[in-house]
Write a structure and sequence with these properties.
Strand order of the largest sheet: 6-8-7-12-13-11-9-10
Helix content: 40-55%
Distance between the termini: 25 Å
Number of domains: 2
Number of strands: 13
Oligomer: single chain
CATH architecture of the largest domain: Alpha-Beta Complex
CATH topology of the largest domain: Amidase signature (AS) enzymes
């Protein structure tokens, strides 16, 4: 077969149906995806570890089962271990690390029938809302190659937006699925805390802030894959209530008339771009046309205080990750093995006490209680996904003088001074100013989704975010399917 030009006119379930009906074979689909990787990836740098031979072999298996049987797929190069394939975490220290096991989520992706053809770019340890690691270089947004695709699931988002694969994996610890979904015009759901597995090596990913799932172009793909991968694995830190029925059925249900609160003001007080505000206001009108009751309101939460707790987590997790690297790799690591931001944050992790960390986690619990009461009045909470349009490549990386300051502070062990001087508080606000809306759902564990309803005057995507009550992906899927039908986005794609 010379090619399958119509490949990107189908979502994952659509391609799987073609395979089941024998209108095309899985090897043919994989060759089309590989051809697209070879053609498109040099421009966007989304795939950093090709797995073509592994994928070809899997596609040849005589019996392919699962809802996505035979469909090409890409795996984010963070957390997800695929036996025999390097897992770098976007980090120099891990550039040659090859796990000898599959993570539980990878096992479930395989059982769903997905054929993994490569691993996608991510910032080091998934720390940034952009994907520009020193190890592999930046991933570019297919809608505008001068702009970021977001992060940390940026490589996955760029690959799906570019039509390389219909879906790819992502993880979300502060917006890392939703931010790139917004910038790349995709549907991106962060499930409820505990909905997807974290084993066998991990438990509370980022103290429960991080949940893994996928980025897709259709609502039904997201629902179907969540049906396939959801549920606790042995030793899971959370075992939450299972959905009343499959999410693939929920998307066929009318959501009824929902009461939805909306807000466009940054919880950090750092401003929101007019394009991002307008995306929400246009969505409000669409929701009202669909019969929903929408009013301006926001939960009584101190966003600035929560931002500081988030960075206490950042610092602590970085310090622990650097120590873990020595254990996993079996060697001593040093500054040269990590980017300066990672190393600096790791050093700051040793400047906070156990009491500081516990106090920060208690603030998350308080926020969860506030949101629980908020959802007694409102079914969903609508905000912009991001506060500003996608930045230019390199724009949000540390400046030269900032790197020098971090080097000096790290070398001299002046982290406590940096903390006392207010430098750390400044870093927290400055880092989250462009994307201040997504972290709330990570603190509280709630499901949240970025829906690609709007494009600006420069033809750049601008998503809107809906946050649902804890455990209620069903309502999010029902509404998203309704919005997808009312204002379709599937055929909007970058040139």
């Amino acid at each position: 077969m010379a090619g399958f030009a119509e490949y990107d006119q189908y979502d994952g379930l659509g391609l799987a149906q073609l395979v089941r009906e024998k209108k095309i074979s899985s090897p043919e689909l994989c060759e089309e995806a590989i051809k697209r990787i070879e053609k498109i990836n040099p421009a966007i740098n989304a795939v950093v570890t090709p797995m073509f031979d592994i994928g070809r072999e899997a596609a040849k298996q005589p019996i392919l089962q699962g809802p996505f049987a035979g469909v090409p797929f890409l795996l984010k190069d963070l957390i997800g271990a695929y036996a025999g394939v390097r897992l770098t975490w976007g980090c120099r220290a891990y550039k040659d690390y090859i796990p000898d096991y599959d993570s539980e989520l990878v096992k479930r992706f395989k059982r769903s029938g997905l054929i993994t053809l490569g691993k996608t770019n991510t910032p080091e340890f998934g720390l940034m809302g952009i994907t520009e690691p020193e190890l592999f270089g930046p991933t570019r947004n297919p809608w505008n190659l001068e702009r970021t695709c977001g992060g940390s699931s940026g490589g996955s988002a760029a690959a799906v937006a570019a039509g390389i694969v219909p879906l790819a994996s992502g993880g979300d610890g502060g917006g890392s699925i939703r931010i790139p979904a917004s910038y790349c015009g995709l549907f991106g759901l962060k499930p409820t805390r505990g909905r997807t597995p974290t084993g066998p090596k991990f438990g509370k990913l980022w103290q429960g802030a991080t949940v893994e799932h996928v980025l897709t172009r259709s609502v039904r793909d997201s629902a179907a894959i969540l049906d396939a991968i959801a549920g606790a694995d042995p030793g899971a830190p959370y075992v939450i209530k299972s959905p009343a029925r499959p999410y693939s059925e929920e998307i066929t249900q009318d959501p009824g008339s929902l009461k939805i609160a909306f807000n466009t003001e940054s919880p950090l007080g750092t401003g929101t771009h007019e394009n991002c505000k307008n995306a929400v206001l246009k969505t409000v009108r669409l929701l009202e046309d669909l019969g929903h009751k929408v009013e301006e309101a926001k939960p009584d939460i101190d966003g600035v205080k929560l931002a500081h707790t988030y960075f206490i987590l950042y610092f602590g997790e970085n310090g622990a990750d650097i120590k873990l690297a020595e254990s996993v790799l079996g060697k001593k690591v040093s500054r040269k093995d990590f980017e300066i931001t990672t190393w600096f944050f790791g050093k700051l992790g040793h400047c906070y006490s156990a009491a500081d960390f516990v106090e920060a986690m208690r603030e998350w619990d308080t926020a969860a209680r506030v949101m629980g009461h908020f959802h007694q009045k409102y079914d969903l909470y609508l905000t912009p996904t991001v506060a500003y349009p996608a930045a230019k490549i390199g724009e949000l990386l540390p400046k030269s003088y900032e790197k020098v300051a971090m080097e000096i502070i790290s070398f001299l062990g002046l982290g406590s001074l940096a903390k006392a001087s207010g430098m750390v508080s400044q870093i927290a606000i400055q880092t989250l100013a462009k994307t201040p809306f997504t972290q709330l759902a990570n603190f509280t564990g709630q499901p949240a989704v970025s829906v690609p309803l709007h494009w600006d005057e420069n033809d750049m995507p601008c998503g809107v975010q809906f946050i649902g009550p804890f455990g209620d992906e069903a309502t999010l899927f029902q509404l998203a399917a309704q919005l997808e039908k009312a204002q379709p986005w599937f055929n909007k794609r970058p040139q």
